[in-house]
Amino acid sequence: MTQTHDAPTTLAPEFEAEFDGHLELDKDAQDLLFRAARTANTFTDEPVTEEQVRAIYDLVKWAPTSMNIQPLRIVLVRSPEARGRLVEQMGGNNKAKTSTAPLVAILAADTDFHDELGKVFPHFEGARDIFAGNDELREGSARLNATLQLAYFILGIRAAGLAAGPMTGFDAAGIDREFFADGAHRTIAVVNVGRPGPDAWFDRLPRLDYDEVVTTV
Amino acid sequence: MTQTHDAPTTLAPEFEAEFDGHLELDKDAQDLLFRAARTANTFTDEPVTEEQVRAIYDLVKWAPTSMNIQPLRIVLVRSPEARGRLVEQMGGNNKAKTSTAPLVAILAADTDFHDELGKVFPHFEGARDIFAGNDELREGSARLNATLQLAYFILGIRAAGLAAGPMTGFDAAGIDREFFADGAHRTIAVVNVGRPGPDAWFDRLPRLDYDEVVTTV
């Protein structure tokens, strides 16, 4: 079951049927980001370049965060030494995946995001102080908004024609300690990035129906 | 400064310059989802239909969650009575926006998502029990993954040619109490949806540079 995102295969009829003409996003983009894209468990050896990561960031940075706080920070783990330290913190099956992916990125929330508010939210002078005086608010805002940005980043990886393998099975405190000496970062996910390799995925798992998720009051 | 997403305006040169050819996603889709799209603060009176919301969900449901848990639940607040109850829980400026948007949706995490695992993660029989026995894991997994799904939903609204106005300034416990009698849901965001109205947005706020966000080790 080898597939790549370079040449999306024809979709099964049940996927086609979902598309009902109410979307402005073109069909190819729908497939690339959502319908044909899959979480990859194996990758080819093809490197993921600095230019590709820059292109992904330059796209997804425009997506919204609360008060434009943008707390996401990304560590690209490129050296064998750093890769080894990261793999030690990963759980079970994630060790092998993290060892072999062409690029591995740590995505973390910077709880000191408020130090950037003068730049990113300049019209509200008191913004920094609101966060500086409230650790719980700062921690919660950092985590929530970095998680939104994680989702944007996953879709950005797909927008670059690559596959993402996001993982949350790891020792988060261990990664924080190994990779963020300031004690102010909270690791949200580790994401493998590359072209899907042989047997990159299992059969697609079912999604909840609209009526199981959406209610009207 | 009236703009709509129906006819994206020409982008400023600084946005054009960011696009560097490393993305497979076509330019129109980049603009619709990320570069031209904006968080709207005002909306026209044009209704948002059930069919539009179904089309959005049928697209974004394919985006990934950990172990396919899909904890997001969405309440479409359509009756004047329910709208009034919601507005009471909103903070400051969000009251007026929530009062007037054509569609308002409450996005919440269902901490009882594990009851669906037999359907959505059928190949791992022990999955439900792992979560059933660990409230902290269940709460954290529900919040993190529903937040990812919130981000997918925001981009899905844009994919439908609509604007989203996500808000986190509200009494979350109050909304949980008013709208989720089971005590198992955690409100993550309230999102206004519609076509942008007059003066829908202020000048675009700056984003952090790549080198402020991404490091390599």
Describe the structure.
Two copies of one chain form a homodimer. Chain A is an alpha+beta fold and 217 residues long. Chain A has ten helices and five strands; from the N terminus they run αααβααβαααβαβαβ. Chain A has helices spanning 13-16, 27-35, 50-60, 80-89, 94-100, 117-120, 127-132, 135-159, 172-179, 210-213; strands spanning 72-77, 103-110, 163-167, 185-194, 214-216. Chain A has a four-stranded antiparallel β-sheet with strand order 1-2-4-3, sandwiched between helices. In chain A, α3 crosses α8. The first copy, chain A, is globular. Mean pLDDT of chain A is 91; it is low at 1-10. At the A-B interface, α2, α3, β1, α8 and α10 of A face α2, α3, β1, α8 and α10 of B.
Residue windows where pLDDT falls under 50 for at least 5 positions of chain A:
1-10
Order of SSEs of chain A, N→C?
Answer: HHHEHHEHHHEHEHE
Reading side by side through the largest sheet of chain A, how are the strands ordered?
1-2-4-3
Radius of gyration of chain A: 19 Å
The number of helical segments of chain A is 10
Helix content of chain A: 40-55%
As an assembly, this protein is homodimer
Largest interface: A-B, 83 and 83 residues
What key phrases describe this protein's structure?
15% strand, homodimer, alpha+beta, 10 helices, 217 residues, globular
Summed up:
2 copies of one chain form a homodimer. Helices cover 41% and strands 15% of the residues of chain A.
